[in-house]
Amino acid sequence: MVCTKTSLFVLSATDNNSLLGPTDNAALNSGVLDVPRSGSFSLAIYHASFGGEIHINQELTVSFCDYFVKRGKECYENRSSDAVSYNVRNATMEDSGQFVIKILLNQHWERFHLHILIRGIPTVHMNSYNILKNFPNTNLQCKGYAYPIPNITFSYTPCNPSAMNHSNTLDKRHCGESIILPQHLGRLSPFNYTTIFEVIVPSWAIETGPGIVSCKATNSEGTASTETFLYVRNFPDPMAFSVISPTDVVLYDDTVHMLCQVDVYNFTNQFTIHHGGSSFKLVGQRHHFAWTVTFLVHINNASQNEVSCAALRKNGTLLVNTLKLLIKYPSKPHVISMNNTVNTTIAYGDQHRLECDIDGTPTPDIVWFKNDDHLRDKYGHIIRISLEPDELRATYKCLGRNRLGTSEKTWNIV
Fold first, then answer.
1. How much is the pLDDT for 267?
2. Amino acid 392: pLDDT
3. Is the CB of residue 264 less than 8 Å from the CB of residue 162?
4. Strand (E) positions, 182-326?
């Protein structure tokens, strides 16, 4: 009801089944039209004769009937000297919305917000979850449409990972007993006069393992449920193919230790390795949520730099991943300048630059010493030094080391 000094406007639900009432906060100048599941309702604005305008819009430019007609529903508007009325047929819960009644009176717009909420059986949706096992927990989410506000129940069913796949088919004989999650764990989005809802169970522990997560929504109109897979993975991609050792660089005549892994959900434990024109088959071992194989390949020449791992999917197809190894010639650490010992003089208070020109393949690790004491705060090939006030001389040394050997360079400071 909108009152002015000279006029009275009355908003009314004119069908027998809809219920019109105020919102919880009367100060918002708004109301709620509760529509039965049939989706058919009528409303009218009654008024005395006046020279102004009356509009109901869903948005700034979308009229009341245009909103429903664009959604494939029936809507009829009728205007007379003392009323504006609307009849809507066969709307659904998803057609619910917020509308603004605008009345232009004496060059001033009066506004009233009307929430039209259409009752219906809940609809629910959940995405599948792909969680890395090193994450301690995740948020379970269920969302959809419902009015009245639904009661949400989550359940979790642990399953054997090797019986799960992305075809969304699962023989539940490979699953355990379902666990109903305590309802206080779920956080339902606040009701703001919309049919959209979202429920989150925060910090669900991943240690429970893979399985099925279900969401059931119930209100006075009925019940709906959905379920989705929760996949716990060792790694994000279907396959992980890597070099275990050497950890620095691959050299000619190296024996390379390699690891190939695929997830247990989509793959069998059958692998084929291709290298240097030959192939061999391996049977993977289960490690958490992956099938894994480790193997050795020997590098004799540049033509052997490619190694391929082929894994057999449950649907009979293959996934092949190829690693191209960067192979280098081995080189023991050595001093490039060919001068392993340097004598130099530093004046007190001056700084001096020392460069450790030791090279090799793999790249040597450099360690610095002063008077045979390890300088743990000095690293890299270049450092700066100065003599302490009471020092007359010092000996600095850098040591370069890789898996092929060591080399050193010494500076005698006087």
1. 95
2. 77
3. yes
4. 187-188, 196-205, 211-219, 222-233, 239-245, 250-251, 255-263, 267-275, 278-283, 285-287, 290-298, 306-313, 318-324
Residues 187 and 175 in one domain: yes
Whether residue 2 lies inside any domain: the answer is: no
Other beta carbons within 10 angstroms of residue 100's beta carbon come to 17
**Among 260, 256, 235, residue whose Cα is nearest residue 327:** 256
State which of 324, 357, 388 marks the end of a domain.
Answer: 324
The β-bridge relationship of strands 365-370 and 358-361 is unpaired
The bridge status of strand 30-35 relative to strand 19-22 is antiparallel
Q: Which residues of the chain have pLDDT under 50?
A: 1-6
Strands across the sheet with 179-180, in order? Answer: 129-132, 222-233, 211-219, 151-158, 179-180
CB of 335 closer than 8 Å to CB of 369 = no
162 and 266 inside one domain: no
Residue 268, domain member (yes or no): yes
Q: What is the pLDDT of residue 170?
A: 60
| pLDDT at residue number 301 | 87
Q: Can you give the CATH number for the domain in which 259 is found? A: 2.60.40.10
The strand pair at 74-79 and 290-298 is best described as unpaired
- Secondary structure of residue 342 in the 3-state scheme: strand
Domain hosting 181: range is 121-233
* CA distance linking residue 334 with residue 407, whole number of Å: 6
Residue at a domain's end among 233, 265, 295? 233
222 in the same domain as 137: yes
* Residue 169, pLDDT score: 60
Identify the residue whose tokens are 């023989």. Answer: 171
In a shared domain, residues 67 and 148: no
Percentages of the chain per state (helix, strand, coil), in multiples of 5? 5, 60, 35
Reported pTM: 0.71
Evaluate whether 385 touches 395 at the Cβ level (below 8 Å). Answer: no
